[in-house]
Amino acid sequence: MDYRPLKLDLSSQQAVRDAAAQDLSWSDVPTIDIIVNNAGVMYLPERILNEDGIEMHFATNHIGHFLFTCMLMPKLLKAAESNPTKGATRVVNVSSLSPTMARMRWSDINFDKRNRDLPEEEQPVYNVHRAWGAAGDLEEKAYLPLEGYNQSKVANVLFGIAANKRLYGKHGILSLAVHPGVIETELGRNMGQETLEALPILKEKGFYSYKTTGAGAATSIVAALDPKLGVGETRDGKENYGAFLIDCQISDIANPSAVSSDEAEKLWKLSEELVKEKFAW
Fold this sequence. Notes:
Blueprint: H1 13-24, E1 34-37, H2 56-71, H3 73-82, E2 89-94, H4 126-131, H5 145-171, E3 173-179, E4 182-183, H6 193-204, E5 210-211, H7 213-225, E6 233-235, E7 238-241, E8 244-246, E9 249-250, H8 261-275
Parallel strand pairs: 1-2, 2-3, 3-8, 4-5
Antiparallel strand pairs: 6-7, 8-9
């Protein structure tokens, strides 16, 4: 199998633009059939704003992927034009289990406000954070490491829904989001001691179990290649059924706001504002 490395720092919009420009310059790679947005950071112990002034989880896990995918759209569009099967050209956003327990923090994307000062519907699910080892008066805090991660992972799902609205009907490009499962990687290397001590307890209670690397990749592969998958639909009163996969199957356990078309449009608008560019194809 041939491959070509590309240096990409998702935390920097300029670095993303530079990497995308390099990819677009490869004339011998005229099309891109599948993008899997898999990289990310998790559980940064302190709030960090990146060089663009955006909280680091959101900047890296969502904005970086959003911008990179949009910048590479010429090659995705060219692939879709030559592909007779609608939906075969795809963007897969690797999310997590966060969309089942969290939602966007629209009024305070950068975690400047105390949690108690947020609208009730935007406040963290405090018992989840305590189960993960968070201590102290969480309502008085602004930044919680897990909540930074959660918000970015909800955004992964909403990004795919908004992309489908713009790309699937007109160009046949399908976007899906997946929870790959919990795999023993270095993603949690920034976790504090309290969280590391809480993890075995959560595992014992059945909150999660570990998957092998291969099993962890399986849902992403299904999302990228299964010809039976398509754009989400409303089913049993739930929006965008089919937009989120768990264990290689379509899942309907995400919070309604995490698969909401209205929320997806808000995210797309915010993302364009943050990268200072509008995209239309």
